[in-house]
Amino acid sequence: MSDPDFTTLHQRMIAEIAAKTIFSTMHLGKAALNPRVMEALSKVPRHAFVPIELRPYAYVDTPLPIGYGKTISQPFIVAVMTDLLDVRPTDTVLEIGTGLGYQSAILSELAKQVYSIELIEELARQARQRLARQGHANVEVRIGNGCQGWPEHAPFDRVIVTAAPELIPPALIYQLKPGGRMVIPAGLPESQQLLLVQKDEEGTVSTREIFQVLFSLLEEGEPD
């Protein structure tokens, strides 16, 4: 497909996300996502972060397989999770589950620095290449156990997790700054909820359920 074809499909994807947001007002508490989030989604070419054979489907609002039993998330879910995270230009963000780097690229447009952890070495290698080709120099990708976070760069203003544990890993809560936010799917496979986790300035943690989701399971791998 040519770049003009992708441009039209990309614009349709953004319009579909806006429409689905209106229908999700009851869950989200608003009818439109942050303009900064929508701008980032408009700037990052999703087709650059999917396997080449799936590029014709890059702008369909659906998850797509990326190998190793993993997927790139549905664009609407990426949009909602990014909006809930409320990333500021000065923030340092921890991402668990790099995949091929699409969510990392969106975060790169919004944050000062992104640290992303991927368990599968080949996906991490490809993500680094794809992010570099798109000029996202403020993303650092590491191969490792996401459940342990990234202590060397903690604490983080924001944490986002793109695979679902049954329970929120304690290390991720610990590495979240007071005043910080985490967006994470969690729960048993048949009853996962997208959660917004907030830590107030005194360190008290609260959670809010957004809506039911279905993510691949967060694998712990070997301890780092």
Automatic annotation (TrEMBL):
Top enzyme category: transferase
Subcellular location: Cytoplasm
Reactions catalysed, as given in the entry: [protein]-L-isoaspartate + S-adenosyl-L-methionine = [protein]-L-isoaspartate alpha-methyl ester + S-adenosyl-L-homocysteine
Bilayer-crossing regions: none
Keywords: Cytoplasm, Methyltransferase, S-adenosyl-L-methionine, Transferase
Domain of life where this protein originates: Bacteria
EC number(s) per entry: 2.1.1.77
Active-site residue numbers: S73
InterPro entries: PCMT, SAM-dependent_MTases_sf
Annotated family: Belongs to the methyltransferase superfamily. L-isoaspartyl/D-aspartyl protein methyltransferase family.
Function: Catalyzes the methyl esterification of L-isoaspartyl residues in peptides and proteins that result from spontaneous decomposition of normal L-aspartyl and L-asparaginyl residues. It plays a role in the repair and/or degradation of damaged proteins.
Name this protein carries in UniProt: Protein-L-isoaspartate O-methyltransferase
Source organism: Variovorax defluvii
